[in-house]
Amino acid sequence: MPDPAATTLDGALRKRRNELSADDSAIRGKAARAQANRSIHAEWRPSPDRPNSIDVLEEQAATRVPELVPIRYGRMAESPFACYRGSAAVMAADLARMPNSGLRVQLCGDAHLSNFGGFASPDRALVFDINDFDETLPGPWEWDVMRLVASVEIAGRARGFDDAQRHAAVEAAAREYRQAMRAFASMRNLDVWYSRLDFAGIAERWGSAVGGKQRKAFEKNAAKARAKDSLRALSRLTQRTNGDVRIISNPPIVVPVDELLGAERGRELAEEIRGLLQEYRATLAGGGRQLLEGYRFVDLARKVVGVGSVGTRAHIVLLLGRDNDDPLFLQVKEAQASVLEPFAGASRYGHHGRRVVEGQWLMQAASDMFLGWVRATGVDGQERDFYVRQLWDWKQSAEIELMAPSGLAAYSEMCGWTLARAHARTGDRVAIGSYLGGGEVFDRSMLAFANAYADQSERDHEALVGALRDGTVAAETGI
């Protein structure tokens, strides 16, 4: 159940943490075991009154673009892992029923394997970090870890790995989170804040843990990521007509605004967009405000993105700078209330776009300089919150479906380290490290939980496939 005083409590805990010595925090962490001992995390089973997963998804669908919802269901139906990716709201309700230590951090809220990846830092290094913050909110640190380890188990099953191979990867994620958190607990605040994982560090630490074939695939993906920028987007997503650059129509994935609304309304909207860009510009940090001033608005299109996000309103905006070969593509994505809010408490921010951005700034080691937020009124007259970021800036996602067992274990460790670093920046890392301890009790609990919840996720996937089969919900596949 939600804590109505959660926001106030978070503020009080931050103040209290500043007043605690490291020894006091360590005592606090061990005392938290009385509230939720480390073995209890293994004891997950569906509650007798567990909400029907289809009902939860349909409740979300009510606030989404109706014609896009079948695409979401079609993508989720492809596999248990795809269904899990789209079921953050379902899992949030499940986790809220479980005991937790009471130690809160800034949560990602949807920390599955596919929500980590590579992107360019402002200093043009290719870094690895969490890359999705739609559900970010303060809450119990365990919820992110449990979302991660379950995704490892589900991904391993999808790859056909045997029990030992899957369990090794799950334990790798949990163990790395625990050991990294304990290492961060011994570090100075500034050192924690400056810590990051770049691709050179990945190659150095994990290169020997995987085979030569996987190392070559990693290097190839890194090279592809560095080529994935606004110039690449310009060549892939636009065409030139009578000297003008315009976004190419590719329905239903990419649909220019003129095609959606008609030419006249499209022109009116273009004028509105120019005003909204100024409002968005005011939310940018540092030099991003000045840099954006050098670009002019050219075109806008709706774009379907992701799995769980399909149906929320997402657009790409094309801006041009010095000339037609100086593009900047922005993604403008709707931010609804976090799926965690009914259970962890309301956000301190009245603007959900700002909630997403502030959470990203806190959790990422380096963030996009064009990260900002804006509120806009849609064609239906409804005001909605959005956050804005670059569309492509060396974006790189792991090809989980191609990983060998050793690759999945190494990748799970990378995600575990990254999640621990993000939590260490925003919570009492000494207390959490003390709670986790130096032994493997927590690791084994996460292994048992991941296995049990993967079973549940398979049942949820079967329920979705059944609902599609009997016509309870509709799906479009192959999109």
Can you tell me about this structure?
With 479 residues, the chain is of the alpha+beta class. The protein folds into 2 domains: 6-105 and 137-223 and 400-469, no CATH class; 230-390, no CATH class. Helix content is 51%, strand content 15%. It is built from 20 helices and 14 strands. It has helices at residues 6-19, 22-35, 53-61, 69-76, 80-85, 88-96, 141-158, 163-185, 189-194, 199-206, 212-226, 230-237, 257-261, 263-281, 288-292, 341-344, 352-363, 405-426, 429-436, 441-469, and strands spanning 104-107, 116-120, 126-130, 137-140, 197-198, 238-241, 244-247, 254-256, 296-303, 314-320, 327-334, 372-377, 383-390, 396-397. The chain has a 6-stranded antiparallel beta sheet with strand order 8-9-10-11-13-12, sandwiched between helices. Strands 5-3-2-14 form a 4-stranded antiparallel beta sheet. Strand 10 (314-320) and strand 11 (327-334) form a beta hairpin. Helix 8 (163-185) crosses helix 19 (429-436) and helix 8 (163-185) packs across helix 20. The radius of gyration is 22 Å and the shape is globular. Residues 1-9 have low confidence and may be disordered.
Write the SSE topology.
Layout: H1 6-19, H2 22-35, H3 53-61, H4 69-76, H5 80-85, H6 88-96, E1 104-107, E2 116-120, E3 126-130, E4 137-140, H7 141-158, H8 163-185, H9 189-194, E5 197-198, H10 199-206, H11 212-226, H12 230-237, E6 238-241, E7 244-247, E8 254-256, H13 257-261, H14 263-281, H15 288-292, E9 296-303, E10 314-320, E11 327-334, H16 341-344, H17 352-363, E12 372-377, E13 383-390, E14 396-397, H18 405-426, H19 429-436, H20 441-469
Antiparallel strand pairs: 1-4, 2-3, 2-14, 3-5, 6-7, 8-9, 9-10, 10-11, 11-13, 12-13
